[in-house]
Amino acid sequence: MRNGEPHSPRTREEFVLNEDAADAVHLLKSSGYVAIVVTNQPDIARGKLRHEDLDWMLDQVWQRCRVDDILVCPHDDGDACSCRKPLPGMILNGARKWGIDLGKSFMIGDTWKDRDAASAAGCRFILIDAPYNQNVECDLRVAGLRDAGRLVLESDL
Fold first, then answer.
1. CATH code (residue 130)
2. What are φ and ψ of residue 28, in 5° steps?
3. Model's pTM, two decimal places?
């Protein structure tokens, strides 16, 4: 958090992996789901995040969560790329690469950009509740990643 707004970490020292992330990914993968991280990282384009620090952070996610893939948009708002959320480019690319049926898929996130990207890609969205996203409207809101994983497994998609 910076000035009451959520922001991605810019240094290794700022990086904190959600304590439920590994358990949630394991739960989903053991039930046959593909787990892909899609992340906007505009601080790369802004010169506020070094590539080697981002690579270290992503390696932490790989090692600790064992996700299937990580897709990164390193662009800034003005770059007009199709991968930057709220556009669905990263989700669509991941679906093509992994043969995923988006109509039977979920996006789990914590911002309106995540919600809008999910909607544009044609998948359902689960919002992780946080103090900074109380104004984000959605059908599915949960307290944490473990709850999101359970909700996915209980779904009838």
1. 3.40.50.1000
2. -70, -45
3. 0.93
Q: What is the CA radius of gyration of the chain?
A: 15
Find tokens 């307290």 and name the residue.
Answer: 143
Q: Give the three-class secondary structure for 51.
A: helix
Task: Show the CA angle centred on residue 10, arms to residues 56 and 34, nearest 5°.
Answer: 50
Confidence of residue 6 (pLDDT cuts 50, 70, 90): confident
Domain that holds residue 117: 21-154
| Residue 67 to residue 35: CA distance in whole angstroms | 5
Domain count within the chain: 1
31: Cβ contacts below 8 Å, ≥ 6 apart: 153
Are 148 and 136 in contact by the 8 Å Cβ rule? The answer is no
Identity of the residue numbered 147: D
Q: How confident is the model at residue 73 (pLDDT cuts 50, 70, 90)?
A: very high
Q: What whole-number distance in Å separates Cα of residue 36 and Cα of residue 70?
A: 6
145 backbone dihedrals φ, ψ, rounded to 5°: -65, -40
Helix residue ranges, H only, 1-144: 21-30, 42-45, 51-65, 89-98, 112-121
Task: Determine the average pLDDT of the residues in 96-109.
Answer: 97
Residue 95 lies in a domain: yes
